[in-house]
Design brief:
Largest sheet: 3 strands, antiparallel
Distance between the termini: 36 Å
Order of helices and strands: HHHEHHEEHHEEHHHH
Number of domains: 2
Number of helices: 11
Length: 227
């Protein structure tokens, strides 16, 4: 699954022995490789001969082979099925898949609640921190860190809803989730949760893709004004 961004932690980059010991050139090549692995069909894997990698990064095969050998000596990467593998991306992808599967498995029980019951039917923690909405959505925890916000919550709910109808789509991208958030027009996530319950009670099929939700939510909350 492709992700539009990489979670980069400067402290981890500097403190990781298998990276900090590299030469400046090797660090630069490793960064380029991380970007390629983030965009790979199987995130965290890079199956590319040195000659092709050299063309992609604008270097020579000789230089790339030398730097790859330096990284191999430092155990910067692993080899799996003939591919260069970033161990951290692999762990993160595994966690993401397990969370998605857990959410899908619990979807039926949550959505089968009577739509007239309280909004506790979706058993997900709702964000309680301040939300800043401009070009993107960010939730600030009391300690100033960035935590799970409304976009992540909406993403989980959309995935659960379509999963109950037998849809095994990849998680919706942030653009769709943000469009749903905008379509709330000032309504709360509790209101959105109630709408999903009503839709499920009426057996509203989610269409061909996640974009189906945007006009549905917009129609429901049209005319409301955010605070």
């Amino acid at each position: 699954m492709k992700k539009p961004s990489i979670q980069f932690y400067p402290g981890d980059w500097r403190k990781e022995p298998s990276v900090s010991c590299l030469s400046l050139a090797a660090k630069g090549l490793w960064w380029e490789m991380l970007l390629l692995m983030n965009e790979a069909p199987q995130r965290g894997f890079l199956k590319m001969p040195p000659e092709m990698l050299a063309r992609v990064v604008g270097s020579t095969p000789r230089e790339v082979k030398k730097l790859l050998a330096e990284m191999a000596s430092a155990e910067t990467y692993s080899i799996q099925d003939g591919c260069i593998v970033n161990r951290r991306m692999l762990r993160e992808s595994g966690i993401s898949v397990k969370r998605s599967e857990a959410g899908s498995n619990g979807a039926a029980k949550r959505w089968q609640k009577d739509s007239k019951t309280s909004t506790s039917a979706i058993n997900l923690p709702l964000p309680r921190a301040r939300v800043v909405v401009e070009d993107e959505v960010e939730v600030e925890k009391p300690d100033g860190g960035v935590g799970e916000g409304p976009i992540e919550t909406i993403q989980a709910w959309l995935r659960e809803y379509v999963g109950h109808f037998g849809k095994h789509w990849p998680p919706p991208d942030q653009a769709i989730c943000f469009s749903v958030f905008r379509a709330l027009n000032g309504a709360s996530l509790d209101d959105l949760e109630k709408l999903f319950q009503d839709l499920y009670a009426k057996k509203q099929h989610p269409g061909k893709n996640y974009a189906w939700f945007v006009p549905v939510v917009a129609a429901k909350f049209e005319g409301r004004h955010g605070s």
